[in-house]
Automatic annotation (TrEMBL):
This is Uncharacterized membrane protein SpoIIM, required for sporulation. The chain crosses the membrane at residues 96-115, 152-178, 190-213, 219-237, 258-277, 283-304. PANTHER family: SLR1478 PROTEIN (PTHR35337). InterPro entries: SpoIIM-like (IPR002798). It comes from the Bacteria. Keywords: Membrane, Transmembrane, Transmembrane helix. It comes from Niabella drilacis (strain DSM 25811 / CCM 8410 / CCUG 62505 / LMG 26954 / E90).
Amino acid sequence: MREALFIKKNKDRWLKNQQEPPGSPDDLARSFTQLVDDLAYAKTFYPTSKTTGYLNKQASDMYLSIYQNRKEESGRLSYFWKYELPLVIRKHHKTILFALIVFVTFFLLAFFIAARDHEIANSFFGDNYVQKTMENIADGNPFGIYETGNPVLSWLGIMINNIRVAFLFFISGIFCGIPTMYKLAETGAMVGVFDQLFASKGFGLQFWMVVFVHGTLEITAIILAGAAGFILGKSFLFPGTRKRMEAFRDGARDGVKIMIGILPAFIIAAFFEGLFTRLYNNVSWFTTFLTTASVLFVIWYFIIYPIQLARKDRLIIKEGVKGHA
């Protein structure tokens, strides 16, 4: 069947599903089964077509609708962390990858530029901070800056500041994502300059093992906040086959879910920075364990698990429809 005929034959039903979602469980199950069949057909015969993308989006929305209405024994929060957030993450993996590329690109640029121009560190962190760090390095305690201040007050102050910055990343996405890109690039550059500050003195490896006790979760959350801002801007600029405001509303909803999802990461990262990073001299095995565990968690929860969940999508949905009916 030609694609034009396929669209003509089913367009009214697709539009009805989108504009007037089925109300009863039986209608929902029937509509979803038909939609899955249409999607399978489109993937087989028109794999790169916009029609396939449209059907995939509609099927995903209906899937979420089914699961949002299910009664989960473990409660709404459990469902959010176990299913809803990972599926939103998977849905926007390409945008998150773009945010990661922006961050890493400017991290590397700043790292190598700072190797040639040491004054850059002063412009980023201020003369006093750099001087104190150099003194700590000379004294054989390069990361002594993390040992200062009250642990609890440091935790609260860092947490509040990071959450504030992250929401600026997200909200500024409304301006076509340009301010978000600037802020994300600036943060990547700042980390690159900070890394070079220690690498130039022979503490490059220690930088990763100490700073990333808290930095793994913190930087991951910052990148995700940047991605949420890009999602917000992209949904308005490129609505696809949907109305612009409808696409913008969906993008805003997904962005908010991501922002809610990264709040615990900021809280835990600030807790680690305030209380545990300072222990790198006394119990280095523990800080190394925290860094390793954080890296493994980020890889699993934000990359592997969402992909696994999406691969099981069709089977899970069919079971969900049966249970819902």
